[in-house]
Amino acid sequence: MSAPAKHTRGPWRQGTLLLTPMTRRWSDADREIMDNRERLMVFANFSPHDEGKSRLFIGQFHTPEDARLASAAPELLDAVNELLPSNLGSLHSDDFDEDLVIPVDMTVREIRNARAAIAKATGGAA
To answer: How sure is the predictor about 122, in pLDDT bands with cuts at 50, 70 and 90?
Structure first.
């Protein structure tokens, strides 16, 4: 079992400009500028139902692709933790050859969760 998370709980989400009564009054050019800025940021606790007011700022990145990758961090961490068997703790020992093949059982759900997290991180399909 892994230690309790010390990071802000997920899911995290890449920023995007919401169409609200206020933003609908903006020009297309202003909306595009703000959407490009939002796509550089990552938030937790995001809810479009409250027009993003409950969101918690996680960070700002240099490119939208970096922000997308960062937004997937909690899911990627969860997926890796699910895939690694909890009884492999003894592998920290130097008694094992680095090329030792270890049979590992995985569920379809675990594989799908890992693929979904990778797809979120890369912008691809799961």
So the answer is: confident
